Amino acid sequence: MDRRLNGPTVLSAATRLSPPQPNYHSRAVREALEHLASIDLFELCNEAEVEHCRATRDLRSCGRYVHNTLISCGHASLCEECSQRCDLCPICRIPLPKNGNRLRLRLYYECIQAGLISKRADERFQEMEDGDKQLTADVQRLYSLFDVALENNLVSLICHYITDVCMDESAVSSDPVIAFLLDEVVVKDWCKRTFRNITTELQEIYNIEVEGMRSRLSLLLKFSVQLAAICNVLEVLESSFKGTLSAQLHDLHRLQENILKTKQHMEIMMWCIRHQFLENVRSRHTDFMSWCSLVRERKSAAIKRSWPDAVNYSAEPSGQDGSLFIEDALLNLDTEQGNTEETAEELEAASLLKSGVLSILQCKIGGVAGCYPFENLRTAVDILFLCGSSDLVVAKQAILLYYLFDRHWEMPDETWRHFVEDFAATFSITRHSLLESLVFYLLDDHTDEALQEACRLIPEISGPTTHPKIAQVFLERNNPDAALMVLRWSGCDGGFQMKPVSLSEAVTAVRVRVECGLLTEAFTHQRMLCTKVKEKKLKHVPSGNASDDFEGEFRNWEKWVEILVTEICCLCIRRNLVDRMIELPWNSDEEKHIHKCLLDFTYEDPSITTGNLLVVYYLQRYRYTEAYLVDLKLKTLEQEFVSKNSVGEEVLSRMRSAIDWRGRLIVSCINFRRNYLD
């Protein structure tokens, strides 16, 4: 049997069959809802099925619609007129009572009589007489009962219908209509149909003026509750497909994702409507184009101040490429041009996008990923809450706060602080998260005033969950002391209970310590990190010969050593700390990178004295042969440099002095060692 229902399931505003608001104080409404809440769920299918009178009239079947069931047996087999002249039920042949009431109104018609279901809807369903249309009428009547349950906070009835009826293997019927109504796919289709109807209503509301939206806030609140209820139904429905990889399960997950995004978007829209989309709150930016220009300046400043990597380790991007916090956040939301264009037309939630937002999504401003700055608050809400995953709602709220801070910071507090605090209170955002979004904005802002304010606020948000990029940005903005404090407060100070870090975070931690002059601490920190990485790889050492996978893991540990040691060496060369660096107790794994780094700098410019300290390094460790070989290598480089370049007398004199000094130092150390042994 084809489980797809014929005909459109979404009605236009002109033809939508919504009943007027029922009178909940009336007895008819109360009795109908009590009947719905207490009905046997298997009987719900029978109540929804279209029945025709089976009595014989003038040698042919009566065929009228049956609005009642017989009290004696519960069958919906006779119309009201025929029940008065018949003595037996046409189905089970049970006698009808001689006196008293013979009929009870069926639940569906009881809801119509109470005003819970539109009479126009029933008239429309009665037009469906033949074939699949008859089946459609039965399904639509069941949907109407589900709608009543949804409207009156009885969604648990639908959930129990899934678990107690649809998933009950003993719940079977020889009637093909009833058998179809017992299928959980019918419930999923009801969820789809209800969601589409709600989105159609939302499209109309979102396209009117702000004042019109404000008058419909109560309706939006009702839709929010209903979407939450539909999500509960889908969670129960998911259990019937659990453990399978069917297309039904994929379709279910996608529907649930769309509903969650629509609900999250609606809740933010309700807040925006209450505050009139901040139309009456002046932005600190003159116009949108000046704001775009300012963002480009921030991006340019971030690129200029970013530090190059001493070693190219593209296998794990360090994030030190001049990206802004807002840029990284939008990338994480997956709102880039290609992905959004592909999925926007497929998602039901995308129909709520304001006209023009899709074209905005397809452009980037000056290299900043995503669409920042947003043209206005409505655009921000649409892009964030309709185009990103619903699981990232907290991140979306943080980005929206970033946008608000960027829009109003430096303006008098009394003009804008109150609605930011209201946003935090409405969505249960903690003060820590609020200040964190502000600090992210301040660190992206390239002005000194913003940096000073970030330094003032950073003690309030630093902790184990502090974003690792904060320390990096402080370092890039020539404030290593603040970066060091962030590392210590976040648990990256090298203690025994230090939290796990990535390679890029380890590089930042080493850089900060060297820039603060804590060379010994930088050495100890890198040694501890590399040891932990090595222990993690070695604790699963296979017996016998190492496998290829293990060798790859071991090389990964060697990469950590190479990168961190090279970073320390390069920074020490830049800060003229090589004499202190060579006194540290480097092991053989680290030493080879010290050797290579110092020689590489000498290759670039043999006139500098960096290579001389490599000779000193080996002499301090009584390794005279290696010191002698390095000296020979340096002499060769220096001779080639002099022969190929025009060298001034001052530089030439300095190089000759260095050569003589190295030679005398090596001879002196060898003689001292020889005399000591004698």
UniProtKB/TrEMBL annotation:
Compartments where located: Nucleus
Region feature (Disordered): 1-23
Keywords, alphabetical: Metal-binding, Nucleus, Zinc, Zinc-finger
One of the Pfam families matching this protein, by short name: ELYS
A GO biological-process term: protein ubiquitination
RING-type domain: residues covered: 62-93
GO cellular component: nucleus
GO function terms (MF aspect): ubiquitin-protein transferase activity; zinc ion binding
Record bears the keyword GTP-binding: no
Major location (coarse): nucleus
Residue ranges of the TM segments: none
Name of this chain's protein: RING-type domain-containing protein
Organism: Carya illinoinensis
